Amino acid sequence: xxxxxxxxxxxRDLLQEAFHTFDQAAHTLQRxxxxxxxxxxxxxxxxxxxNAALRQQLQDNEAMRTHLSGILNSLTTGVLVVDxxxxxxxxxxxxxxxxxxxxxxxxxxxxxxxxDSLQLTVSEQPQRHESHVLTIAQRALEASSGQSSGQLLLxxxxxxxxxLEERLQRQHRLVAMGEMVGRIAHEIRNPxxxxxxFASMLRRDLQEQPASLAYAEQISQxxxxxxxxxxxxxxxxxxxxxxxxxxxxxxxxxxxxxxxAHAITKTxxxxxxxxxxxxxxxxxxxxxxxxxxxxxxxxxVQAMPGGGILTLKLEQADGRSxxxxxxxxTIADNGPGIDPVHRSRIFDPFFTTKDEGTGLxxxxxxxxxxxxxxxxxxxxxxxxxxxxxxxxxxxxxxxMAVATALEWNGGQERPASDLEPAIHVETMEERAHE
Length: 434
What we know:
Elements: H1 9-74, E1 78-82, E2 88-91, H2 93-99, H3 103-106, H4 111-117, E3 123-129, E4 132-142, E5 148-157, H5 159-205, H6 210-237, E6 245-248, H7 249-259, H8 261-264, E7 269-275, E8 281-284, H9 286-302, E9 308-316, E10 326-333, H10 340-343, H11 361-371, E11 375-381, E12 385-393, H12 398-408, E13 425-427, H13 428-432
Parallel strand pairs: 7-9, 7-13
Antiparallel strand pairs: 1-2, 1-5, 3-4, 4-5, 6-8, 9-10, 10-12, 11-12
């Protein structure tokens, strides 16, 4: 038996309308899904582009940070970055070098406490710190918004500037004193000749009176002493009149050491020579430069009455030092050093801290080096010793220099053993084998 169910027309219409509505909803959902898929794909592209732009920006920022760090560390001016609380947050390499502290020791410190511990102040006036002369300036550090974000402490090394200024003042002072000393020397020498003439006549007439003859001889000795002093004064005032030529370096140094043997043998001094074999000869006046080395050796020995180390070193100098090829001779001792109060006056004529000194030794040294178109500087620290540095022009004629120098010295170079047994000279090669 078959049963059939007939739908009412109204129900059929309602069902058809429901199917139609469902189809429309399905199509709408399909379109929405497609739109959402497209949007997601677009957002993926935009996000990828944003990520790429962000990575590029980070790379650019890192490159800029590295570049700025490189610039900061390349500055010769020391830089301390101080935050609003007054603590150091960043330093550059110049600051660590000038202050003598590591970056880790500087960061996090109170800037004011740090300067106090180093005995420095924020001032445009030069102030000495160890081997440097510094000025310290303070500048406000502003953020991009224009508001203050801290301070910058700028540490300037004005050591070379102070040396140049000191050298210029010394040069002017020495020129003026040289003119005065030259006039006085000539004025004294005229009556001195008369005194020596009368003293010689007295010696002749007093041959049979020994007591009186001794007085006349003392007068002559005093006259000769004054004449030597005047000769030194004239060397100081007129060193540029001497002839120059190629001289063997080792011979000059060893001759000077031989002349100083009387002082060296009284003191346990260890002499160390470090002469660059690539500089066998130098362009100078033999007698005058020997006098320079002798005076500096005697000064060094006298600065070490209890003994010490005397080092003589010759090497090629930086071509920029004198505007051309140059050599550098250093004579160093490890004595007590020079009082900073006296350092600017040591080359002045008649200035001396010794009980028996005339104050002409270093003045003559300075005049001779200046006449050779060279330069002499001094570095000294109390308790650590003194180093005199001589820069001298070195013409580029090495082959002629060696041949001429050897010819003037009889074709032979004097070995260090020529000084024995008076003094022992230790070369760098000997020390290398110890």
